[in-house]
Amino acid sequence: MYNEIEKTREILLNTKKLTVLSGAGISAESGIPTFRGADGLWQKYNVTQLATPEAFKKDPKLVWDFYNWRRGLISKAKCNLAHKALVKLEQKISDFCLITQNIDDLHRKAGNKNIIELHGNIWWIRCTKCDFLKEDRRIPLPFPPLCPKCQSLLRPHVVWFGEALDPDILALAIKEIKTTEILLVVGTSATVQPAASLIWIAKENGAFLIEVNSEPSEATPIMDISLRGKAGEILPQLCE
Ligand code: OAD
Ligand code: ZN
């Protein structure tokens, strides 16, 4: 393991272009439950039933209760050593981009700058009818949150099950992925599309793939290097 880490560090720090793809596992050590782990969010809440446009239409209060609960949890979370290590990598590597599936804002809080949020951001809310969009950190938000422009219901600015990603954001991510020398994949099960497909696109375009995950993921078979363990323990060693 030690040699693997040494080798990976050498490869990482000598690259001109590094792209990182992160998932819920990177925030696990900050106390934010993952989606599919043993104590993942799924076990307590049926997210497939809550985080959908249909659920919001049927019972906006229930869905907002769920997001207010998550906002409370995330507001208390501190970025961990894995987030901090990615800030160091951004400082060391001239062309660096961090693509995240997380909506918890912890990468920004840690200090990363060039971030692409594929699934939105929990601190932003938007109108269900017009183009109104703003940051709002109140917990809980008064219910019903209404649009100041058109009085329609506001919703979290996140991607729900069955919804498409913002095409501009996805295009931006694909552009980075297609030109990257190295893709570092951290804490994602690589099961949710189209986010996971970015890993295969990187592979097709000749990127060197490195994974940091406490368990094997769907993408493990195509990795050049797989480092098994907690992101908060492994990532700091990679950027010393
Ligand atoms: P998952 O919950 O599917 O996967 C979490 C991954 O993190 C698993 O592979 C774990 O093995 C790994 N993991 C857990 N703790 C870790 C640690 N301390 N260090 C390293 N790895 C660790 O989360 P995602 O892959 O991010 O989408 O899920 C993708 C998407 O599914 C989410 O963005 C969300 C959900 O549906 C939307 O909400 C649209
Ligand atoms: Zn509106």
Give the key terms.
19% strand; binds 2'-O-acetyl adenosine-5-diphosphoribose; 2 domains; 240 residues; SIR2/SIRT2 'Small Domain'; three-stranded antiparallel beta sheet; binds zinc ion
Please provide a written account of the structure:
With 240 residues, this protein is of the alpha/beta class. The chain folds into two domains: 1-32 and 79-119 and 165-240, 3-Layer(aba) Sandwich (Rossmann fold), CATH 3.40.50; 33-76 and 120-158, SIR2/SIRT2 'Small Domain'. 39% of the residues lie in helices and 19% in strands. It contains eleven helices and nine strands. The protein has helices at residues 2-13, 25-28, 41-44, 47-50, 53-58, 60-76, 81-92, 106-110, 167-179, 197-204, 231-238, and strands spanning 17-22, 95-100, 115-117, 120-127, 133-135, 154-158, 182-186, 208-213, 225-228. The strands form two sheets. A six-stranded parallel β-sheet has the order 3-2-1-7-8-9, sandwiched between helices. The protein is globular, with a radius of gyration of 18 Å. The model has no long low-confidence stretch (mean pLDDT 95).
Short description:
The chain is α/β, with parallel strands linked by helices and 240 residues long. It contains eleven helices and nine strands. It has helices at residues 2-13, 25-28, 41-44, 47-50, 53-58, 60-76, 81-92, 106-110, 167-179, 197-204, 231-238, and strands at residues 17-22, 95-100, 115-117, 120-127, 133-135, 154-158, 182-186, 208-213, 225-228.
